Amino acid sequence: MQQQINQWLLKFRIEYTDVMSLMLVLGVILLISVIIHLVLHRVVLAMIQRNSQQSQRVWQRAMTEHKLFQRSALLLQGVIINAQALLWLRSGSGTQTFIVTTTQIWIMLFSLLVLFSLLDTLLEVLNKSTIANQLPSKGIFQGVKLVATIFIGIMIVSLLMGRSPLLLLSGLGAMTAVLMLVFKDPILGLVAGIQLSANNMLKIGDWLEMPKYGADGAVVDIGLTTVKVTNWDNTITTIPTYSLISDSFKNWRSMSESGGRRIKRSINIDISSVHFLSEKELERLNANPLLQRYLQSKMQEVNQHNSQAELDLSLSLNGRRLTNIGTLRAYLSSYLRTHPNIHQQMTLMVRQLAPGPEGVPLEIYAFTNTTAWAEYEAIQSDIFDHIFAVIDEFNLRIHQTPTGNDVRTIFINQADKTGVETTLV
Q1: What is the 8-class DSSP label of residue 420?
Q2: Where does the Mechanosensitive ion channel MscS C-terminal domain start and stop, copy by copy (predicted)?
Q3: Given this model, what pLDDT does residue 351 score?
Q4: Which of 58, 66, 152, 258 has its CA 20 to 30 A from that of 177?
Q5: DSSP secondary structure string, 311-372?
Q6: Could you give the percent of the chain with pLDDT greater than 70?
Q7: Can you name the residues that pair with 342 across neighbouring β-strands?
Q8: Domains in the chain, please, with CATH?
Q9: Which whole number is the average pLDDT over 132-159?
Q10: For residue 167, how many C-alpha atoms fall within 13 Å in the half-sphere facing its CB?
Q11: Residue among 148, 370, 392, 137 at smallest CA distance from 263
């Protein structure tokens, strides 16, 4: 092109120089580039932007949001400028070499950015899918971005040095130890992400509990090197991805998927309040619908045993008798089996644990039919409110460590008996 301009100027007997012909060629390249830029950005991209805003397709809106079309347009402009430089400038000239080298770097950089936009678009589309959402897609895509960036970086350096990329790649073999140290976390994170996905150990939205890192909340992001957890107090905990493989953690997902959340809480019964039920107590408790069937069948069994044994029942050591704590266990079991918020298809029992200095623990072990936290706490509280209220009906007492008011009452009672005035501070 530059030679044709020289011949054209010579034909019209116009005085020219090499600089003038070069400036004319550069002016033509610049003019064509500006026209293409205006057409692409003011017409084509503007039309695509409007269509994307009106579209209901996730992938179409994602491509626009992640600037895929803008970066592709800039990549195309670089290709066009490179082609013009090769066609119109004098081959082997310094100007051609400079423009070609610059545009090739431009093409490689925007090719990398286009790849980033494609990966971000694909990631957003995958996040909308229930099945694909279980995969650590973000970590894998970040790994691909890292590899692509290293590759493009090697290509640019080799272009500027005028050497083959294979020479640089062969030289990297001696730097393997250094690279392993520098990229240790991304490599470990990529491997950990694949293991987490393959074993279905963790996904976004899971309730994760990891006391070592102070994490107790919902997983909001699984990246190449870190996992972000929003704790229940709305703080953010960042955990290295590879630590989820090397250390243990608790995932509450199966609890949420099961539809039931466990209640496992005890009340401590004062041992001195445990006794055999009297006839009067049996008659009173038999009026409760939840205990009628139990008491009738149990009394029939006890009477049959005692009549066959022919023992002197005037002594409480002889024969079998019902206890108030055993009857309370039967009542609570029947109460839970008729409770509308208790899951009847899961484990349900009221059991007595080993006695200790604080009395006899009576444990409620059951599952609610909801996993919602607030509803679960309300159901559990209602159940134990009821237990505390009915405990006196069985003539039992809840064990409680003496409070300051208890000590004050003791002093006052002693003062009333001895007639000595006592002052409590």
Answers
A1: -
A2: 336-398
A3: 94
A4: 152
A5: --TTSTTSS---BHHHHHHHHHHHHHHT-TTB-TTS--EEEE---BTTBEEEEEEEEES---
A6: 83
A7: 368
A8: 2-198 (no CATH), 207-251 (2.30.30), 261-405 (no CATH)
A9: 76
A10: 7
A11: 370
